[in-house]
Amino acid sequence: MNYTQAINQFIVENFLFGDDNNLATDASLLENGIIDSTGVLELISFLEETYGITIEDEEMVPENLDSIDNINNFLKKKLTAL
Amino acid sequence: MCGLAGIFHIHHDNASGAIPLETLKRMTAALQHRGADESGVYIDDQIGLGHARLSIIDLTSGTQPIHNENKTLWIVFNGEIFNYRELRKQLIDAGHHFYTTSDTEVVLHLFERHGTRCLDLLNGQFAFAIWDTVKKKLFLARDRMGICPLHYTVQNGFFYFASEVKSLFMEPNIPRELDPIALDQIFTLWTPLPGATAFKNIQELEPGQFMTVDKDRINFKKYWHFPIVPRTGHMDAPIEDITEQLTHLLLDAVKIRLIADVTVGSYLSGGLDSSGITALVSKQFNQHLQSFGIRFEESDFDESRFQKQLSSFLNVSHKELSVSNTDIAAHFPDILWHAEKPILRTAPVPLFLLSKLVSDNGLKVILTGEGADEIFGGYNIFKETLIRKFWARHPENLSRADLITRIYPNIFKNPLLKNSLIQFFGQGLDTADDPLFSHMIRWNNTRRIKTFFSDTLKESIGDYDCIQEIRDRLPDDFNAASSLTKAQYLESTLFLSNYLLSSQGDRVAMGHAVETRPPFLDHRVIEFMARVPSIWKVFGLNEKYLLKKVFKDVLPENIVLRPKNPYRAPIQQSLLTKENSDFINNILGKTSLQAAGYFNAQKVRALTRKLSAQKNINEVDGMAIAGIVSTQIIHDQYIQNFPASVNPMPELDLIVDHRPPNHGLST
Q1: pLDDT tens string B461-502
Q2: Is the CB of residue B5 less than 8 Å from the CB of residue B163?
Q3: What does each C-alpha distance from B483 to B66, B68, B383, B408, B434 come to in angstroms?
Q4: Coil vs helix vs strand at B43
């Protein structure tokens, strides 16, 4: 299962307000000014609500959340573990 | 305070056209909210000066314009000179004659004696214009920090000036257009840069600047710069001595700001700064002080319990005003009419309502704690800078990173956020030598809201980059300064002067004819603090360390020790309510947005959808909605539906008509 498209859609709608701009799936969301510190909260709520998962404190690291690819891989791992 | 306006026909000798008295009257009338006690004009064949007066010093004979002994110099003046009594005495000793007891007349004679260097002798907050009928030269000046406003524009050989932009727009030939470059600045820095306004071709005299205008040229000069003192120039005295000197200085700064022929009150927010000022006044100078404070419906923003504690501790008569979300939404358009620029917050609204309470209680003058955070090192951005600088030396050291969580306990409340927040504040650690290091995170974060700009607006802005312009304007000695000094300079010269003292200061107070006086911005205090070592400003992570020492004997301990809580007001909680939805839907509707042309309607729709669906709203979305709504309102008020005249026109109390015969019939 690939979640890239759904994640991309969420990010484009909520942080880019529809402005796709050919967002690369490996681009850092923070460094490119797409998400700010509190925007991460929105992203987490989205992931938890949409996929019925709980994200733990120690999972809140850039390796899991800072690009569409990272989120996709993280989700895959998380959902397989369920 | 007051309002002033004028029209100067620069090329009088080689072109026709008299000074239109009717326009001058309209320009003056447009400022009557700043002072409705009296109004007056001076007019000759080349210039017209208008004045709307709020009488504070010399209630009976201070009607303006005011002239010198032989009527060769004429002045219109807004503001206060706090050391005018001693200057007046010196001038009388030197042979000058006065026909009023006002501070305005002192400025005129001081100019007559010292020329433009008179500015160095003034301690005050002011904007004024002096017309020299012999040299045919106009002199305009503004106080050091920019407490009083002064705008100007040149159009078809005429030079127009006024306290507020709305007064300039009373001349129908002056085009009214929002400036794309200013919008770029506002949507990055929260304010236009010094000298700029939201409008194309309308300039503001910079703080600490004067200009002269005659038929040959327009000259500008900065007579005062916000001081930058390198470490080598810092005081080497024990902290006790520094505290004592500062206490002495602050007492005098407060004392001279109590000079008025009317009652002076005080704002009391419950924080250190306004509490300290209120304490100094009530303990040293006036035991019957009246203070005023704001209560918020939203408990996150409310500080009223501290106000209650202080008013009984200091034995002042305190009045509070309760502000609801509905009030903020209802008066947002009013404060924009006064602020004359788009803003990214709603915080001016409660202060606008508070000045009404002051005015309803019969007061015209209020002392405020404004400026303390900039001058004494109170803001989190200063501590954030010091920590990030310390962290940058060993970026891998996470205990250094952890310090950040100590200064933002509220946003780190959610443990889930810790890693991403630390990563957020870790941005730019590799550029710790950047002169703008302290502010880049904030500006980069804010400018994300430029994503809502329309393609047309983006095109007009082109490659322009306001952050690059700030870099280009930095003074030569900037790099030698400490990190804290650099951050203080940026905060004071950008945000304090152009937003806090304007949109959140002069404009919302003068909206109800109330003059605010900030003792912490006495230039002697600023210059003194510039020589105080950074360590005494932010001691470890203890902000305003020196100021706390000054106030520890006059305030309750919990007030001195409580962490700083920035003054804020609700944005989306007030603007995006059901009650306000008709207004918002209309002003943010596709038709309105496209007609005005500044924003991308689809994106704005996506934003409002997001904001109304979500509970957790991030700060950037809040700034975006305030910025978009306020730009649309300013467009409606100033571009689309600007009222061409003032109704009813007030009667002038004084008309000095020096036009040659036959000229007087023109309108």
Answers
A1: 999 999 999 999 999 999 999 999 999 999 999 999 999 999
A2: yes
A3: 46, 48, 10, 20, 10
A4: strand
DSSP 3-state assignment of B27? helix
At B363, which amino acid appears?
Answer: L
Rounded to whole angstroms, the Cα distance separating B144 from B140 reads 13
Pick among B384, B388, B404, B423 to test the A interface (most A CBs inside 10 A) = B423
**What's the CA gap between B417 and A27, in Å, rounded?**
20
Is the bond leading into B65 cis (omega within 30 degrees of zero)? yes
For residue B566, pLDDT over 90 is answered with: no
Q: Can you give the pLDDT at residue B662?
A: 64
Distance from chain centroid for Cα B481: 25
Burial of B546 (0-12, 13-18, 19+ CB in 10 A): buried
- Please spell the DSSP secondary structure of B559-585, one letter per residue: HHHSPP------SHHHHTSSTTHHHHH
CA distance B652 to chain A (A): 53
What is the overall mean pLDDT for chain B?
Answer: 93
Residue of B nearest to A10 (CA): B610
B451 touches chain A (CB under 8 A): yes
Distance of alpha carbon B336 from alpha carbon B421, whole angstroms:
34
**Which residues of A lie closer than 8 Å to B, measured between beta carbons?**
13-14, 16-19, 30-31, 33, 36-42, 44-45, 55, 57, 60-62, 65-66
Indicate the SS3 state at residue B219.
Answer: strand
* Interatomic CA distance for residues B549 and B387, integer angstroms: 23
> Residues 562..621 of B with a Cβ closer than 8 Å to A: which?
600, 602-604, 606-607, 610, 614, 616, 618-620
| Measured distance CA(B415)–CA(B530) in Å, rounded | 39
Contacts of B641 (CB under 8 A, 6+ apart): none
Structural contact between residues B543 and B273, judged by C-beta atoms closer than 8 angstroms: no
